[in-house]
Design brief:
heterodimer; A: alpha/beta; ten-stranded mixed sheet; six-stranded antiparallel β-barrel; 20 strands; 26% helix; B: alpha/beta; 13-stranded mixed sheet; three-stranded mixed sheet; 29% strand
């Protein structure tokens, strides 16, 4: 079969640049065009006949027999730029290739002068180890498009996205408007269409910017262009918007008068308001104050006192008792006993009055002065409690939680609340409940806000780490995105079995978070175009470049 | 590599009949002596030192001037030189065979010659490449029995056996009693013979629009014989980077005649100019000099000058226009140069350099020969 494909060059091993088990080089025949990330195959020895060693092109170099640039200067009649030399300078382009695999598990270095060809689709799958993944575990992740026009669908192994072998996906880069989000949503759709037991997977999506994700159940106004349709179909997927979507939108300051949520856009259907009263929040104050430096744990200690005081000791639920009996809402907490008496902050437990005063100032600023309206004294019956809504998630359902217009502390509270609720459902109660989905995927952009690299610990970081480190076995999958992976906590990044990288600057790529990438791959990543991504998956031996179709739902600004 | 396997068998057999003083560590490569080309040029022209016949025919019928401008004529305008021939070799001293009072050095060499064809886009392709294996020893320094045995073994292995004691024009340059020193000349002689064979093979593909440049002199007898078969000029020139420095040239007639040394003549030769063509061997060959580059860029006035030879079977003065055209095309060959790769870059033509490299790349590596050819 391979003989029908043209030979594009011959492998080359020299005294200074020998081929090895991990890499080989080949020179290109004239007129052949090869680019980084192309997958090629070289003829390799085998006990009987030949085998094929697959590799991915990392770098290309053109060299000539001129030992110095001065030689070229002199060759052009001492610097004459006009005119063409009589004889073309001898030179060749050499491609350096990282070995991916051998179809007969032979990892001898590729010998000199062996024919090299572009791999075909089957070869690409062998190269990436996709042929070893049973069909039922294959999730389309994008399309490899090579310089010779060959295309191949890249499949991820669902056991390494959804568990139990590995989990979590991290998407990073400055690849362009909505590229990361579009890819995350594409991947979720691919999982929902192709993964095993897909009707037992629930999805929670946080909308953090504009109204990007508040229309995921609506088709594009003018439909998808035919080429995008083809792309979806080549991936074996159906271009369709999400179905069974529930939107949770934040209560705003104007909501009591207008009835409108505090969102950039209102979905056509199936949306609900959510808000936080003190009763909804008292056990999550640590999340709300996550961004407050607390080196001596005084805020943490006071939060513990408050949580304990506002809990019914018999049920563990909301039920202020004793000196906390008068606390019913945010106002009474901030201005009444036991935190305040006669206008003066009071010592609470071991927490001195001065620390209580600081706590009041911080909390007042968050829930009263600068709040967006999400904190209410009494939550109306038609306004939902976030954790109760999240706990109602079912298989096949997608919940979109809008936090785009919330303040940073409020966003942290909502995201932390979701994580804590899900973690509690799966880790503490166990997943015996028949109603619970087998797997839950949580997508959030700007992950660095919630698990920043520079901070070692905070309540929200701990929550994210719990999911990152134990979600694989629980069936809770974090799909995070951010501009700079270096800004995300290394334990979160380290637990992602799939990393997707869009165009990134060389300064960013030089950070330790990217040390798993070959320097040549880093250079190529810095040149990626908008919409191009490089994906590194647990079962792939090298990262590959992919493209993916445009979302099949109505996108703001896409029309 | 098969040649080496045969050769190893031959060495083993000789070692049974004669005592051998092996070269330390195996085969030792003979290094080419510097400026052999120049010494060869001298040997081939030994009888002529003063050249006083300007052997070209100016269209104006006047006496051709000593210097003529020849601005470059690039490939894009007229692609005159299409083929380029060069030979190369690698020679190894294997040891000394001792047979009673007799002794002879034993050498192994690979010689090769290559013709490159240049396409219209300036790229080159290999047209002909031939590699031969040589085994050399002194016939008169060994018994007839050993020599006969060597002949039979070499013949069976398709290896040419050469007698180092046999006189020839090239190895005669090295009038040295030590046969080991003559080996390099013997190898060059064999290489020139191979080049002559290849010229014969390529000749049908040449025309007055498709010329061949041969590296070095055309005065080597087998080569010159190829080019003098009939009364027609052959589209072949020899271009020498190094040439003898002792000839003198006479220009002008009567009392105005002026005698110049080659140094004087070439010092006054401007860039993109040629000298008048002089006759050699009674007009069978005409030769002239072309300055490819400005002297200001070079260390020495004789640098950047090539000697050009054209076989002239009619033995009539050659039209100046033809010599101008050849010279102009040659000046254009100055780009590209093998600067940094060959110390003679200033006068080296890049396609010739590539032809030499093509041969060298096809020869067995020193490492392979040195490890393979050991007296065991």
């Amino acid at each position: 079969m391979s003989d029908e494909r043209p030979i594009i060059g011959l492998s080359s091993a020299t005294a200074n640049q020998p081929n090895s088990s991990d890499a080989f080089s080949f020179w290109l025949a004239p007129e052949v065009i090869v680019n980084p990330f192309d997958i090629v195959e070289a003829e390799q020895v085998a006990p009987e006949g030949t085998s094929r060693t697959f590799g991915i092109v990392n770098t290309l170099e053109h060299s000539t027999d001129a030992p110095t640039h001065l030689s070229n200067f002199i060759s052009n009649d001492f610097g004459q730029v006009a005119g063409e030399p009589n004889t073309a300078r001898q030179g060749t382009t050499v491609a350096h290739v990282a070995v991916l695999s051998n179809d007969r598990d032979i990892y001898m270095p590729v010998m000199n002068d062996r024919p090299v060809r572009f791999a075909d689709e089957g070869g690409i799958h062998t190269a990436l180890g996709i042929d070893q993944v049973p069909a039922r575990y294959r999730v389309p992740a994008g399309l490899i498009e090579m310089s010779n026009g060959t295309c191949a669908v890249v499949y991820l192994d669902s056991r390494y996205i959804l568990g139990p072998e590995g989990a979590h996906v991290n998407i990073t880069g400055i690849s362009g408007l909505a590229t990361k989000t579009s890819y995350a949503i594409f991947l979720i759709q691919s999982i929902l269409q192709k993964a095993e037991n897909r009707d037992r997977i629930g999805v929670i999506i946080l909308n953090v910017k504009h109204g990007d994700l508040l229309t995921i159940d609506q088709p594009p106004c003018e439909g998808l262009p035919p080429e995008q349709h083809d792309l979806w179909e080549r991936l074996g997927l159906t271009p369709q918007p999400f179905s069974n979507v529930r939107y949770l939108l934040p209560y705003g300051k104007d909501t009591p008068t207008t009835g409108r949520p505090n969102s950039f856009r209102i979905p056509e259907r199936n949306w609900f308001l959510y808000a936080y009263s003190l009763a909804d929040t008292y056990s999550k104050l640590d999340l709300l104050l996550s961004n407050i430096p607390d080196p001596w744990d005084t805020v943490g200690a006071l939060i513990g006192e408050i949580t304990q005081g506002l809990s019914d000791p018999r049920t563990g639920q909301w039920g202020p008792t004793g000196k906390w009996k008068g606390v019913t809402d945010w106002n009474s907490l901030l201005n009444g006993e036991p935190l305040v008496k006669e206008g003066q902050a009071q010592q609470v437990g071991d927490v001195r009055a001065v620390s209580v005063g600081r706590f009041r100032r911080l909390l007042r600023r968050i829930v009263q002065t600068r709040q967006t309206g999400i904190f209410v004294d009494q939550r109306r019956r038609d306004v939902k409690n976030m954790s109760q809504e999240i706990a109602r998630i079912r298989g096949g359902e997608t919940i979109v939680v809008d936090i785009a217009r919330l303040a940073d502390d409020e966003q942290t509270l909502v995201f932390g609340d979701i994580l804590r609720t899900i973690y509690a459902l799966y880790a503490e109660e166990g997943s015996e409940s028949e109603d619970l989905p087998e797997k839950v995927i949580i997508f959030v952009d700007e992950l660095n806000k919630y698990a920043p690299a520079r901070e070692k610990e905070s309540p929200i970081i701990e929550q994210v780490l719990d999911i990152a480190e134990r979600g694989r076995s629980l069936g809770v999958v974090l799909l995070g995105a951010e501009q700079f992976m270096s800004a995300v906590h290394d334990r979160v990044v380290g637990n992602c079995s799939t990393t997707v990288i869009g165009r990134s600057g060389s300064a960013e790529l030089s950070s330790p978070a990217y040390r798993f990438l070959d320097p040549a791959v880093k250079a190529n990543i810095s040149r990626l175009q908008k919409g191009e991504l490089v994906i590194s998956h647990a079962t792939f031996r090298q990262p590959v470049k992919i493209s993916f179709p445009k979302p099949a739902y109505w996108q703001e600004g896409a029309e | 590599m098969q040649a080496l396997q045969h050769l190893r068998q031959i060495l083993k057999t000789i070692a049974q009949d004669v005592e051998v003083l092996p070269a330390v560590g195996g085969a030792v490569e003979d290094l080419e002596r510097p400026d052999f080309e120049e010494r060869e040029d001298q040997a081939l022209n030994e009888k002529e030192k003063v050249f006083e016949t300007i052997f070209e025919r100016d269209p104006s019928s006047r006496l051709p001037p000593l210097y003529r401008p020849v601005p470059p004529l690039g490939r894009a305008e007229q692609h005159l030189f299409r083929y380029f021939l060069d030979g190369s070799f690698r020679s190894y001293f294997l040891g000394t065979a001792l047979e009673n009072e007799r002794e002879s050095p034993v050498h192994y060499a690979q010689i090769g010659a290559c013709v490159l064809r240049r396409e219209d886009d300036g790229s080159v392709r290999r047209e002909i490449l031939q590699i031969d294996n040589l085994l050399m020893a002194g016939k008169q320094r060994l018994s007839e029995a050993v020599w006969t045995k060597l002949e039979a073994l070499a013949s069976a292995a398709s290896i040419r056996l050469l007698d180092l004691t046999e006189q020839d024009i090239v190895s005669g340059v090295l009038a040295d009693f030590d046969l080991r020193n003559k080996a390099a000349g013997k190898v060059r002689f064999a290489m020139h013979n191979l080049e002559a064979e290849i010229i014969k093979a390529i000749l049908p593909q040449l025309s007055m629009e498709r010329w061949l440049i041969v590296d070095g002199s055309l005065l080597f007898e087998p080569t010159l014989a190829q080019l003098s078969g009939d009364d027609q000029l052959k589209p072949i020139i020899g271009v020498a980077k190094n040439f003898r420095k002792d000839p003198q040239f006479v220009s002008g007639r009567g009392p105005r005649a002026e005698r110049r040394s080659i140094y004087r003549m070439l010092a006054d030769l401007q860039a993109e100019h040629r000298t008048a063509a002089f006759s050699a061997r009674g007009g069978k060959v005409v030769f002239w000099y072309v300055r490819l580059r400005e002297q200001t860029y070079l260390d020495y006035p004789l640098m950047g000058v090539v000697k050009v030879e054209l076989a002239n079977p009619p033995q009539e003065p050659v039209p100046s226009d033809l010599l101008d055209e050849i010279s102009r095309a040659l000046v254009a060959e100055r780009s590209i140069t093998p600067h940094g790769q060959d110390r003679r870059w200033h006068a080296h033509l890049y396609p010739i350099f590539l032809a030499e490299r093509a041969v060298k790349e096809s020869l067995l590596s020193r490492e392979a020969v040195q490890q393979f050819l050991k007296w065991r």
